[in-house]
Structure formats: structure tokens, C-alpha cells
Write a structure and sequence with these properties.
Length: 133
């Protein structure tokens, strides 16, 4: 029998070559077939490694995107907190100025009723400095 009867190569349902040895002939395997089989295994291993590297790179990229999104969210939150804090400071200053102006107006009225014009002048100075600021 010839070497062709000793080895049969078929393609399975997944499209992969399958090497089968027949019982006839009992000759040594063809070195070319062994080399091809070895190359096929190396190719499969290389492909598996490439897939693993791709999956790792995609996971790393996804993690980087999540970290960037979190950093953007935190930065936006910090900006909002700063703006809120500044608004609160300005609002509190305005309220304090209003309260001081109201107190000065009340003092002017009280001192005028009492005829204490020296204190009226002081209260009017406080009132004009409060409104002028």
C-alpha cells in the first residue's frame, strides 16, 4: 500500500482538519503531515493568545473609560459645590446687609422720636455705609 492509504485528512463540521490514521500499511507517518499538524497547532495557540490579548486590552480600555467618566462626574460635582458655596456666601452677605440696614433705619426712627440727633446722625451714617457698600 502507498502512504496515501495510511493517513486520511477530513474536515469536521467546525471546518477543522482531522487527521486519521488507518490500520492498513503500518508505515511511519508522513513528515509533511506531521509538520502541517504542528503548524496548525501553533496557529491555534497563536490565535488563542491574540484573542486573550484583545480581551485584556478591551477590558483595560473599558476600565479607563469608567475611570474617566467618574473623574468627569467628580469634577462637575466639585464645580457645582463651589458655585453653590459661593452663591450661599453672597446670599448670606446680602441678608446681613439687609438686616443691618433695617436695624439702622429702626435706630434713626427711634432716635428721632427721642430727639437724640447725635445718635440719629450715627445711625444715618451706618445706614448710608450699609446701602453704599
Amino acid at each position: 500500500m502507498s502512504n496515501e492509504d495510511d493517513v486520511v485528512v477530513t474536515i469536521d463540521e467546525a471546518g477543522q482538519p482531522v487527521v486519521e490514521k488507518t490500520d492498513e500499511g503500518k508505515q511511519a507517518p508522513d513528515p509533511a503531515a506531521a509538520e502541517l499538524s504542528s503548524q496548525l497547532e501553533e496557529l491555534r495557540a497563536s490565535e488563542a493568545a491574540a484573542k486573550a490579548e484583545k480581551a485584556a486590552a478591551e477590558a483595560q480600555a473599558a476600565a479607563a473609560r469608567r475611570e474617566a467618566d467618574l473623574a468627569r462626574t467628580e469634577a462637575k460635582s466639585a464645580r457645582n459645590e463651589t458655585a453653590d458655596s459661593q452663591l450661599e456666601t453672597v446670599t448670606m452677605g446680602i441678608e446681613a446687609a439687609r438686616a443691618e440696614a433695617n436695624a439702622a433705619e429702626q435706630a434713626v426712627a427711634t432716635f428721632m422720636e427721642a430727639g437724640n440727633f447725635a445718635e440719629v446722625a450715627k445711625a444715618q451714617r451706618r445706614l448710608s455705609s450699609t446701602l453704599g457698600s
